[in-house]
Amino acid sequence: MNRRDLLAAGLASAWASGRAWGAPPAAFEDQTWQDPARQRELPVRVRWPAGDGPCGLVIHSHGLGGSRAGGAVWGEAWQAAGLAALHLQHPGSDSSIWQSGLRGARQAAGAEQYLARIADAHFAIDEVLRRQAAGGAWARLRGDAIGFSGHSFGARLTQAVAGERPARTGRSASVARIADPRPRAFIAFSPGFNERDGLDDAAMAARFGAIARPFLAITGTDDDAMIVGDASNAARRAVYRGLPAGQKAQLVLAGADHMTFGGGTGMAEAREGGRRLRRGPQAAALQSLHQRVVAGVSADWWRWHLLGDASAKERLRAPAGLAAGDLWELG
């Protein structure tokens, strides 16, 4: 067994025992939330950590053509780490788009659905805090310990909520604000943007320099443009350069591709979406190892920045399971 396998096995064993965080994760609950302002139904999946004590919350947004089932690997890891997870599903850019094939995917990747997702994010945070104030099970949530994450199209939403300033931004009367001040930290799985405005340092600083909260970008060496040409690998890795120093991090896994970071049970499992996926040459074979590393790194990121866990911060100085060719940066 090589070094990577040994480290990954150790990481998997630590997760199986709950690390320092206690009991294994509980089941999830599916709900449908109604946004009365837009007459829009938003399917969600809720994962609660064990016990009934106060906990932080991570809101997760799926990629194009996915659903609230996406990001299951990440949600289970965060749940085991003592955090609640709320998986959003975005009607109009979810798994329903595959009924129209590639044409539906291209339409769903446009500005209209991007703005709809931004409104979904604001509504979800509003609704979480409303439920917390109303009492019951939601009262255990800490309103000062909310994180936001997403994969691919969901990563673009995460960037917007964090404070990205794209050179070309659509306008909509239904979205009065873009960035949201309430999340404390962010993770973008396969971040990106349209690179027509440039990839130089000045363009990156103009685009991402206003993001003043902790932001972790996660990608891979084979994480390139997908079905609708969303972002090149160079663009995905340029996000980190544009973030201001002091609270940023980047994980780049050698051989990982776009679907490595979907976290399972998403577009790859949809019949039409799966048929059109282009996988990297090593991605499928390395996926389970990569996902164990990402699960550990992301859980520690949340515990550090949402809960002030000093042990998690220390582990992120040199995350477990990294292999030759992987890149970890704290800047």
List the helices and strands and how they pair.
Blueprint: H1 3-16, E1 28-35, E2 40-47, E3 55-61, H2 72-80, E4 84-88, H3 101-108, H4 111-134, E5 141-151, H5 153-162, E6 185-189, H6 201-208, E7 215-222, H7 233-242, E8 248-257, H8 271-276, H9 283-307, H10 310-315, E9 327-330
Parallel strand pairs: 3-4, 3-5, 5-6, 6-7, 7-8
Antiparallel strand pairs: 1-2, 2-4, 8-9
Helix pairs in contact: 1-9, 2-9, 4-5, 6-7
How would you portray this structure in words?
With 331 residues, the protein is of the alpha/beta class. The protein has a single domain, classed as Rossmann fold (3-Layer(aba) Sandwich). 36% of the residues lie in helices and 20% in strands. A 9-stranded mixed sheet has the order 1-2-4-3-5-6-7-8-9, sandwiched between helices. Helix 6 links the parallel strand 6 and strand 7. The chain is globular, with a radius of gyration of 18 Å.
